[in-house]
Write a structure and sequence with these properties.
By secondary structure, the chain is an alpha/beta fold. The protein contains 21 helices and 9 strands. A hairpin with a 2-residue loop joins β8 and β9. α3 packs parallel to α5, α13 packs across α17 and α14 packs across α19. The longest helix has 29 residues. The termini are far apart. The C terminus is likely disordered.
Length: about 500
């Protein structure tokens, strides 16, 4: 906050931290504080979990929209820009930054803070971050605007902040280099509060009068090794409503210490314990198969799916999904409401499941090409059932004339089919290229192109994603499948 309010400080602040150190919590709190002090202009929280929030070209248009909503003078300038170039939001990043942000902000003299969180979670194929590259070229034209940016120290992010045009304007804070005793004290306080709340909530159980003990708390702090994600996962694990918290605490405390570094730290040991506990009573292979399909869909979904969406997509009963996931509540949020999204608490858990060197149980390890293939097949089977005019609209109705399209699409299609229409091609190109898998694709691909391609285009139009039709056809062409003697390109 001192940096944000001191006009003499550098205009860019990079909060640099490893996975699990609290990077996303800090910008969220900072944004709330900046908003309460009336200095927050706009924010964009990148996320691998949401397709729209991992696309670089969505960042500057979103920030411009928020600024236009907040500042009337900015809005007036931006409207003129859009009138002159209606496709400005689809231009290059440098054009977007100049036309949507720099020129309107310079012309209006607005002073504010802009927050961009988790930049590393955006898809970017440049050796140095594309966003940072263009920011470095224009940031000196915005003397009254400050950019608060967070991200893991991945090579392209580090390279971006080291660019000669940006480095002199950037203040860097290394979150993972904070004094260990300070971090340990914070984690100790966090765990003490959380476990005390658990003891109060489960007061009917016969817990010791002093629970947890100081020794138990210290053991958990030591195992956390500075990772808040470890501490928060431990708290949820111990607080399971289905188990006795004292026993769960001892499962963690009594487990041998592991090396502590990102990727193979104490968090791996914790995730292994959570999964072991979740499957300890499972004997049937069919139950493991269901769990793996459900977990894979949750982890690999390009937009988070609800339980209703998973039911439709996987053709698995809602009660089965809830039952399979209920012992994983410490790592996955499974709402009681079937229509609400199922969410993974932290990306370190999907990373763990997808790495065979970390997740050693083959019954739970997620092989991405294979599981993307399963998702593609599920999507194609659903999309292949579409009929002409799937939403039952009158003839010659324009999209803009359809009131409450969101409600109409949910009622007529459901969240699972809507997901399948949007993302079948992305799962397809990410899937296995084996001959066996190609043979499985033959029927659903043929059905799609023979019967469902035009209804699918109708849905994509109503969704406002007609450009996705072109991308999907291009992806299938690049994959170059030969199905039923017809080249699907």
């Amino acid at each position: 906050m001192r940096w944000a309010q001191n006009i003499q400080d550098q205009p860019v602040y990079w909060l640099n931290g490893l996975a699990g150190t609290g990077k996303s919590t800090i910008p969220q709190t900072f944004s709330e504080m900046a908003s309460s002090r009336d200095i927050l202009g706009a924010s964009f929280f990148c996320s691998r979990e949401y397709l729209g929030r991992k696309v670089l070209k969505n960042i500057f248009p979103t920030l411009a929209y928020q600024l236009a909503c907040r500042y009337p003078q900015f809005r007036d300038h931006l409207v003129n820009v859009i009138k002159q170039d209606p496709s400005v939001a689809h231009n290059s990043l440098i054009s977007q930054l100049r036309d949507l942000l720099v020129d309107p902000l310079s012309a209006t003299g607005i002073s504010c803070v802009i927050v961009i969180d988790a930049l590393d979670e955006c898809v970017d194929d440049q050796p140095a971050s594309a966003i940072l590259s263009v920011l470095g070229r224009l940031v000196n034209k915005l003397p009254l605007v400050k950019f608060f940016i967070t991200g893991r120290p991945e090579p392209r992010i580090r390279s971006g902040f080291r660019l000669p045009l940006l480095e002199p304007f950037t203040q860097v804070f290394l979150l993972h280099e904070v004094e260990p005793t300070s971090v340990g004290g914070d984690i100790r306080l966090y765990l003490t509060e959380k476990l005390a709340a658990i003891a109060k909530r489960r007061s009917g159980l016969e817990l010791p009068e002093v629970w947890p003990s100081d020794e138990d708390i210290m053991a958990l702090v030591k195992k956390s090794s500075g990772l808040f994600i470890f501490a928060s996962t431990v708290a949820r694990f111990i607080g399971s409503e289905f188990d006795e918290p004292g026993e769960r605490l001892q499962l963690i405390v009594n487990k041998a210490d592991d090396t502590s570094h990102e990727g193979a730290s104490g968090i791996d040991s914790l995730y292994s314990q959570v999964l072991h506990d979740a499957v300890s009573g499972i004997k049937k292979d069919s139950v493991f198969a269901d769990l793996k399909r459900i977990l894979s869909a949750v982890v690999l979904a390009l937009d988070p799916l609800s339980r209703d969406g998973l039911v439709q997509l996987l053709n698995i009963d809602s009660a089965v999904i809830y039952t399979r996931l209920r012992h994983l509540h410490s790592v996955i949020l499974v709402p009681e409401d079937r229509a609400k999204e199922i969410r993974v608490f932290h990306k370190s858990f999907p990373d763990f499941l997808q790495d065979p060197n970390r997740c050693r149980d083959p019954r739970l390890h997620i092989d991405c090409p294979t599981r993307h293939g399963d998702m593609a097949l599920c999507c194609l089977h659903l999309v292949g059932k579409l009929k002409i005019n799937p939403c039952g609209l009158p003839p010659f109705v324009m999209n803009e004339d359809v009131s409450d399209r969101e409600q109409l699409l949910m009622e007529k299609l459901g969240s699972g089919l809507r997901y399948a229409c949007k993302h079948w091609s992305t799962h397809l190109i990410s899937s296995s290229s084996s001959r066996e898998y190609d043979d499985q694709l033959m029927t659903p691909i043929s059905t799609f192109f023979d019967r469902a391609v035009f209804p699918w285009m109708e849905v994509m139009s109503l969704e406002g994603h007609l450009e996705g039709v072109v991308h999907s056809m291009s992806r299938v062409s690049n994959r170059s499948y030969q199905v039923s003697g017809t080249h699907c390109g």
